[in-house]
Every structure is written in C-alpha cells, then in structure tokens.
Amino acid sequence: MRPALCRLCGSYCPILVTVEKGRATKVTGDRNAPLYEGYTCPKGRALPEHHNGPSRLLSSRKRGPDGTYAPISSDDAMDEIAQRVQSIIARHGPRSVALYWGTGLCTFPQNVNIAAAWMEAIGSPMVFGATAIDKPGAPIAQALHGHWPAGHPPFEEAEAWILIGLNPLISRSGGFPPNNPGLRLKEAVDRRGMKLIVIDPRETETAGRADLHLQARPGSDPAILAAMIHVILRERLQDSAFLDENVMGLASLKAVTDDFPPERAGAMAGVDPAAIEETARIFANSRYAGIGTGVGPSFSLTGTLTDYLASCLMTLCGFWSRAGDRVTKPHVLLPAYQPRAEPMAPFPAWGTGERLRMRGLGYNAAGMPTGALPDEILTEGEGRVRALFCMAGNPMMAWPDQHRAFAALKSLDLLVTADLEMSATARISDYVIAPKLTLEMPGTSALVESAKYYGHNRGIEGPYGRYFPAVVAPPEGADVIADWELYYGLAQRMGLQLAMKTAFGIGQHLEIETQIDLLDMVSKPTDDDLIALGCRKSRVPLDVVKSYPHGRMFNEAQLRVLPRTAECEARLDIGNVRMMAELAAFQPPPFGGSEASHRIFMMVSRRTNRMMNSSGRLNPKLAPLEPTNPAFLHPDDIADLRLVPSGQVEITSRHGSITAIVQPDAGLLRGCLSITQGFGGNPDETDDPEGLGCNTGRLLSADAEFDPISGIPRMGAVPVRISKRP
Ligand SMILES: Nc1nc2c(c(=O)[nH]1)N[C@H]1C(S)=C(S)[C@@H](COP(=O)(O)OP(=O)(O)OC[C@H]3O[C@@H](n4cnc5c(=O)[nH]c(N)nc54)[C@H](O)[C@@H]3O)O[C@H]1N2
Ligand SMILES: Nc1nc2c(c(=O)[nH]1)N[C@H]1C(S)=C(S)[C@@H](COP(=O)(O)OP(=O)(O)OC[C@H]3O[C@@H](n4cnc5c(=O)[nH]c(N)nc54)[C@H](O)[C@@H]3O)O[C@H]1N2
Ligand code: SF4
Ligand SMILES: [Mo]
Questions:
Q1: Which CATH number fits domain 594-724: 1.10.3720.10, 3.90.79.10, 2.40.40.20, 3.40.47.10?
Q2: pTM here?
Q3: Domain 60-133+348-433 class?
Q4: Whose CA is nearest to atom 28 of ligand 1?
C-alpha cells in the first residue's frame, strides 16, 4: 500500500493506495498520517475507478468535420494547436486567447502556474478561474476590511462557530477545518461543548448537529449579521481595547447597524429575533469564536457584504491572535514568515488590472470575472476572445446561463479542453487533451497551507507538511500528459520562455514577495522539478519533508506572534464606505410571492456527497448511486402543488426552464427549491431528467443581475415557478 493524498477536492485527505499489477485497486484512509485520522469520503475511495474506469481518455482527441472525435497523439495535437493559436494571435492579438481553469486544479496546482506563465508569455491577461463563480466576495471583502496576518486562534479553542450557507459535513470546504470535519465537529460540539450555529434555509447534515439553526430565507444574511453587530454594540460586548489600537470605521458601522434591530432583521430573514440576539451573545461572550461562510450567500449575491460583515464581527470581538500566541497557521512548505499582532491595511479590491469590454467589470481581488467571459467571446469587436483553453473545468456544466455559454463556446475559432473524460465541454471542443491523473503525479500539501490566503478561516491548522511521489504510472500504452505539459509544449513550439510565478497571498495582499522562476525550455522539467522550484524557499526544506512518507507536524517550525511594531499605522476598516452604503440600502429578495397565479419558489444550490460538481458522473462506482439531481421541496409544498414524489416537474425562471424529478426534504424551508448543480447535458443533447439529471445553469442569466465588482451572476435565491409535467 502506497501513501499519497487524495486531491479530488481541497481537503487533501491522506490515503493508502493498494497497487496491483501497476494499477490502483483500492483506496483507504491513512491512519498513520497526522491530522485526518484516516478520514476519506466516497469520492476518494473511488479514485481507482476515476483512473481505470471505461470513460477515462487514454489519448487525446480531435474533432473531425463531421463532429466525431478521433484519437490524435499529444505531440501532433500540440503541433496543430500551436499553429492555430499563432495564427489567431497574428490576426486578432493576444487578448483573443483566454484560459479558464476549474476545480481540477487541486490535482496539481502547478498546472495552473504553468498555464498562466504561457498566457503571460503570449501577452494575454485573459486568465479566468472557477473561483470567480464560487465565493469571489471572500477575497474582495478581505481587501476592503484589511487582513490580520497573525490569523485567528486554533479551532480547538473556539467556544462558538457560526456557519453561513456552508455545509462542511458534505462539502469539506473552507470555513471549517477541512481535516475530518465530522470528527472535528463531534469533538468540538459533543466533547468540548462548542456552540454550533448554522444559518441555512435547509436543515443540512451539519445543521442537524447545531445548537441553533436559523432557517433564514436565502439572500437575507447581511440583515442577520448587521443585527448581531447591533446587539453587540448595544450591549457593549465588543473588545474596545482591540478596536482602539487596530481599527477604524466603528462610528460608521454603528450608525448603519443602528437601523438593524433584531426585530427588523428577523422580519427580513423570517427568523425569530430572539434567536439572532442569542447568536450575537453566544458569539461575543466567547473567549474566541469563528465564522465560516459558504457559497450560499455568495450565489444569493450577498457574498461580499456577508463576508465583510463576518470579518467585522471577528474584529469587533478581537478574535485574532495576539502577541505571544502560537501562530495557528505557521509555514512549512511556504517560505518563512513571521507574523506580528498588527493589521495589514485594506487595499484596492478592483480597478487595478485588465478591463472587460462590458458591464464595467474587470480584474479584481477574486481574479477576472468568469461570469462575463461568454459575452467577451460573443461580443464583436476588437479584443473579442476567439480561442479558449479550458483546464480541469467544465464550463458547460458550471457556467451560469448554459445556453449563452453554449453559444459562446460554439462560436470560438478554437476550443481546447483538457479532461479525463468526454465531459460536456469536451463534447464540443476542437481538441480534448487527455491528462495524467492525480495518483500518477507527485504532490505536496502546499495547497492546504496557502488556502489561508483565500479567507481567514480556510486552510489547515498547525505546522503540517507532506510530500508524496506518484503512486502508479499511467496505464500502459496511454498517451497522457500532465496538464502543464500542454502549455510547456506550446511554449516550446512557439519559441517562448516560461516564467513560473508562485504567489504567497492574494491580489495586492502579499505576505511574501512573489517568486519567479525561469523554466529550462530545452530540457523539459519533471513534475518533481516544478514542486522543488515552488518550494525552493520553503520554511522546512523539501528534502526534510520528503523524509516523512506519511507527513508530519513540524513542531520545530512553530512560531509565536510577535508584538506590533511602533511604525505600524495600518488599521482594519469596519466602516468601508461602499459596504456601509450597500448595507444601508439592503433589502432581501422578495420571498414567497406569486406571479400569474403561480407561487414563486426560491431555488438554492446544494452539494452531494458522491460528486465533485460535475465530476464523478461517469465514475462506475459513484454514478449508479447518484444517477440524477432531484429537485427537493418541502413535503407540504409538494402536497400544495399536487405533485408526487419521483414525478417530473417543470422548473421555470425568467431565463429558462428545465425538467427535474421532485423529491421531499422535510428539513427545507417552505418556499425553497434545493437542487444540485453539475448535472444534465448540453443544449444540443436530448433532455433526460431521470438519466442525466438537469442543468440548473439554464435557469440563470449571466447579465440580468450580477455583483458589480466580481461579476458573479445570481446563482442562488433564484425565483422559479414549478409545475407538474403531464
Ligand atoms: N448552477 C450552478 N452553477 C455552479 C455552481 C452551483 O452550485 N450551481 N457552483 C459553482 C462553483 S462553486 C464552482 S467552483 C464551479 C465549478 O466549475 P468547474 O470547475 O468548471 O466545474 P467542475 O464540474 O468542477 O469541473 C471539473 C472538471 O475537471 C475535470 N478534472 C478533474 N481532475 C482533473 C485533472 O486532474 N485534470 C484535468 N484536465 N481535468 C480534471 C473533471 O472531469 C471535470 O470535468 O461551478 C460553479 N457553477
Ligand atoms: N461532496 C462534494 N464536496 C464539494 C463539492 C461537491 O460538489 N461535492 N464542491 C466543492 C466546491 S466547488 C465548493 S465551492 C464547496 C462549496 O461548499 P459549501 O459552501 O458548503 O456549499 P453547499 O454544500 O452547496 O452548501 C451551501 C448551503 O447554503 C445554503 N444556502 C443557499 N442560499 C443561502 C443563502 O442565501 N444564505 C444562507 N445562509 N444559506 C444559503 C444551501 O441550502 C446549502 O446548504 O464544496 C466543495 N466540496
Ligand atoms: S474529502 Fe473526499 S474527495 Fe476530498 S480529498 Fe478527502 S477523500 Fe478526497
Ligand atoms: Mo466551488
């Protein structure tokens, strides 16, 4: 059995892989690895099928004139793509080439670094990622509020934890410890008596374990958080000494939240005002407490304000590590960094980079606005995107507004997708590049260390470090390349020098200067060379980390927070003008109305245990267990609408319509419809709600409503009508 990390999602669980005749045959949790206690999920345990399943591409494909796909060698594919992209650049300029990377980046983060290096070498700033249609408000809020580099105390010291639109027992996502969230929750709630408070319209797996579940209406979170601040300031529960020393903007925050007494917020959110008061008191009376935010508020278009107010709550109560405290997230594979008990000042969250041609959008702290990329492809004129490279993402399943995404991708002169299978996006691509998969590549735990840059409560706690070699070779006879090798191969053919950038921070908030490494363009580096380059300044030398095959807690790398320096003038801003104006004008989306004799429901998204977004739907171990994505409704709503469980319903928004199978969920707030994304087929394929499921992206519009900074379109709290299909 060979030790490795599962890299299907950002949790990076340690695993043991049984290898027979050169193939992975079984995956279990690795109990000898620290922090995770042998934890895995069904997706991780299905890694052998991910690698060896019948749908895996063992060679690249090229689309012929009749629309069918034929194998092509990776070298020939790179020759042809290099020629085509050069002629597109010659005619239309480098901005006509765009890159989109998706969640498969977890496999080997250097893949994106090299693809981005190629984009820089050709001179195109059009690099888009899935993070801009996920929680883009988190980094933007951090820019507006400022950052506390010393971080927060460890989770095991928290006396209360608030989860807002986040379901870590299933998503194992940031905002809660990613290492074995079930056990962390049990230890905290059952053994330590930590108070868990969940704000979610659904009684999720996590909410079922909470002390308090605020079953709020989708899109109402800012009102609840503003009322919590109201209560804390009214009852003087804030940490005034911390505020005096480190913070500005208190008067503005107080003035605006004065207008959010719990009664008003409770009416907006549909929750008991007493529960909001109780939440505020539990939070502020804790020695330390934390808040995790998920995609719920982000999709409801309140992501930036929700994350900003969550940071304000942390700051009001001074829940940040102080001089002398142990640093909760010390560096191991990241370069040495000594935090101090002082703020890093707010910085501009937008307006510093490339502008899009539409909607006033541009580069921001969350990257380029992916929600507007289809229109950059469709809109005529100079700068129009004509070629798209899609790496480890599946736009046809993931981009909001599926019909528009389809029209955009079909209109491209060149679409190159790297995917392990003929995904929905692969099925309309000119070239499909077959990649090496995760067990076929070495890796490190650097990603879980740097996750802290994407939000204060993300990433792993403690001085944990891990390296592992590839576990298996690609199947015999396969012509598969690492995702990064496509961009390296194109650069070689185009005579370009690549410079790999490794950044330690986000936007302009950099703890440590970005590292730039020129790649040898004659003799190709290996996966391990790229890892070594990225770790060349690591706090613990990579070779030392390598000598512990199951990973280790490098306690010798543990640090204490140093005191504030006399010169530090930076202050965290809890009264940002734009955020205060947005809060003052805040109104939640209308809930429970009716239109033309139809009740209006609010559609919200949920994740399922066996799929990673659209990934897993062709996995022979997982797919039969999760064949479709039912539309969940409260049983009383099912009865009111005279529907029958497992019957077909038509769901219609202002922008589109899909057919789904209805299922009861007694824990769902009445008036909501909860459904998983990433299912269904392409618009030119036959709808099959029972076999393929349905694509909720068809109910969304890319431009009807969107966040003015990140450009994320409304993807949650979407008004829909539901009717029975004959
Ligand atoms: N309607 C709706 N839309 C949504 C969401 C929603 O909840 N509702 N969620 C949004 C969110 S949060 C996100 S993050 C995005 C996700 O957007 P995407 O990342 O674009 O979508 P995924 O379905 O995660 O696609 C991952 C793809 O990568 C492939 N893959 C996996 N590993 C590798 C690898 O190592 N190499 C390569 N080349 N490919 C690999 C998988 O087969 C899969 O096709 O979708 C967003 N869109
Ligand atoms: N098993 C599994 N794990 C995954 C993924 C997966 O597809 N499957 N996807 C990965 C990805 S890309 C991401 S981004 C993360 C996401 O991880 P999470 O952020 O935990 O996402 P969800 O599990 O969809 O939980 C979102 C919750 O928000 C609630 N909600 C909806 N609207 C609102 C609102 O306006 N306010 C509040 N307070 N709640 C609301 C929903 O009911 C739902 O329970 O998970 C990652 N992990
Ligand atoms: S939670 Fe599941 S998919 Fe994510 S890393 Fe762990 S085993 Fe893999
Ligand atoms: Mo995501």
A1: 2.40.40.20
A2: 0.98
A3: alpha beta
A4: 392
